[in-house]
Amino acid sequence: MRKTIRRSVLLFAFAVDTVRAVNNGLARTPPLGWNNWNSLGCDVSAELLLDTASRLVSLGLMDVGYKYTVLDDCWSDGRDDNGRIKVDLKRFPDGMSSVSARIHDHGLLFGMYSSAGHMTCARGEGSLDHEVADAQSFAEFSIDYLKYDNCYSKGRAGSASETFARYETMAEALNKTGRPIVYSLCNWGEDFVMSWGVSIANSWRISGDIYDSFSRPDDRCSCTENDPSSPWCVSPGAHCSVLTILNKIAPYADRGQPGGWQDLDALEVGLGGMTDDEYIAHFSLWAALKSPLLIGADLRTLSPEALAILNNPAVLAISQDVLGVPATRVERNTDVPKDRYGVGETHIWSGPLSGGDQVLIFLNAANTDLEMVAYLEDVFVGQGPSCSAPQCNQDWVVHDLWGSRMDDKVAKELLEKSKSREDAARILQAANHYNASSLPYKEGLEKLDIRLLGTKVDEISARGSLSIKVKRHSAKVFRLRPKLGITGKRYNHFKDEL
Ligand code: GAL
């Protein structure tokens, strides 16, 4: 039995290594950072970016892993006589290289945006047919990340090959600059990007734009009311709720891998349209599905509650797990009470983590509190049906990953008093908060750092199930850890704990 597991782990590792996403060696775990679009749209400036960068540092967010400061649309000002893209000097008076250098001075990384069209979505200058020159400009600005949108494609869309060609041209132009630049496709899940994105990019969006709603359906983000999960169902629009995006990705949630991730869009946490519970569910699922996690809130007005969600190291350790396997949905139940939009369903999502652990999420998107049950047989169906998987035949310890969420008082102190990395370190050390810059998640997990493992709440017996009450519009998020070895012996590295 042991041999079988080892062999499959080896085969898997081999597959991940050879089917490398884009050949640039970047984004081996999903990128973490910030993007202005969700909260600020076109209201961008050098001042905003620099202020945000220093807040990523002083709020302790950089030290739990949020490194990419990404400028979205609305920064350009046409082209010069040589065909080079011009920066809007009203918004960026010292030019983009200066912004980039100052972001890098913090130890952060800098991202920018363009479109595989003749214009960007906000009608700025697009890069279609200017890829080489624009990639050169991006390299001169010393960017580390490019989000590449899909507006105004001059009709060169509608089939996988046409769209692939547009995006591949920029991939090659970026690679030729010699600068390591994470390449993030934003073609809204169109033209089967889930089947080809991995060949040229580090991430690819799978839906139209997210909006700050947990479950409200909107025609602009679905093709037919009844089948929002179909990969053929795309909409270049917006207004995709958290639930709609989850339903869209469910059939192909497993396509992400180290180097190439499925992008569920930037986070809405902290924008104000969802409850605390809904934001926890949104954040946890984005982490477990291995989406890039780009904070979408304006850090100048962030609430303590939102900060305490975004900086949960136990959940970020799921996102940054080196195995890099996205959770998949193992159960969906639509036979539950509905809201006035006719929406109501529950999901169970699960996926493997390094060290033999497993993430397990109960999502209650029904219109009432519910008792939910997860059966090991379903959780490990991917490893073998009818409980034939070895994992189904062992006992598990259940850890709640929100059990030790940061106290709002600490978050408030950070927001009100911290002005530097040192201030943040002092406040966070006093609160015994995890610091991923001094102890990377991989090492923290190997050392069984309790701050990454969550709070022990229950156990599941071999071939058994976990039954739990889940409030309306919330999620319960667990790390399962093997209790006994398959042979009945304890795994060595859990010896101290069990
Ligand atoms: C959309 C894209 C958004 C944002 C916006 C900028 O197409 O999906 O994330 O980048 O364009 O105009």
From TrEMBL:
MF-aspect GO terms: alpha-galactosidase activity
EC nos: 3.2.1.22
Catalytic activity: Hydrolysis of terminal, non-reducing alpha-D-galactose residues in alpha-D-galactosides, including galactose oligosaccharides, galactomannans and galactolipids
One Gene Ontology term, aspect cellular component: extracellular region
Segment forming the signal sequence: 1-21
Pfam families associated with the record: Melibiase_2, Melibiase_C
Residue ranges occupied by any Alpha galactosidase C-terminal domain in the UniProt entry: 344-406
Gene Ontology biological-process entries: melibiose catabolic process
Alphabetical list of InterPro entries matching this protein: Aldolase_TIM, GH, Glyco_hydro_27, Glyco_hydro_b, Glyco_hydro_melibiase, Melibiase_C
Keywords, comma-separated and alphabetical: Disulfide bond, Glycoprotein, Glycosidase, Hydrolase, Secreted, Signal
Source taxon at top rank: Eukaryota
Localization terms from the record: Secreted
Record-linked SUPFAM superfamilies: (Trans)glycosidases (SSF51445), Glycosyl hydrolase domain (SSF51011)
Family under the similarity heading: Belongs to the glycosyl hydrolase 27 family.
Protein name listed in UniProt: Alpha-galactosidase
Organism from which the protein derives: Cadophora malorum
